[in-house]
Write a structure and sequence with these properties.
Layout lengths: L25 H7 L5 H35 L6 H21 L4 H7 L4 H28 L6 H14 L4 H7 L2 H23 L4
Amino acid sequence: ELSGKAAVFKVNIKEVQEKKLPEIDDEFAKDVSEFDTLEELKKDILEKKIKSTKEKSELEQKEAVLEKLLEVTKVEIPNIMIENKIDDLIRELDFQLKYSGLDMDTYLQYMNKDMGMLREELKENAEKQIKTRLAVEAIEKAENIQVSDEDIEKEIERVANEYKTDADEFKKSLKPENYEYMKRQLRYNKTIDFLVDNAKLS
């Protein structure tokens, strides 16, 4: 009815609100954190920012080194190794989906894919991971990189702290295969650190 016509609307204002930000002081710090003073809160934020920036830089360095390593690595990968790795990646995805409250069938339907298409998509990543692992393991042997008992103890403490559990109790729950897996991962990580320390990236 009012299309193309001038109109006047009368409006009753029920309420006027104004956003009021809190004072950035010690009381604010107590309300939003476990710290008693604003200075302590600022220091904690700065330390976390520095740590985050450092970790990001280290990750970028490692990724750059691994990319260079892949460029110079020439290896024929048996198809069975690729298929087994794809199986591993699918199991990892299935675990993540279940953790999120989904299942594989629902995921495939939502993504408009079937299992064959998913396996084909994962093939390149599987080949890359295998190639990286083989190259790193070759360097492990060539440089005789070892994992000490002290390295394992530190890793146990780190994981226990991450899961907020007692290190001794966590240690008791570990099986021989858990130790072997831990050793492999630590040796792998030490080899990557060795490559980063000795890398000359252009």
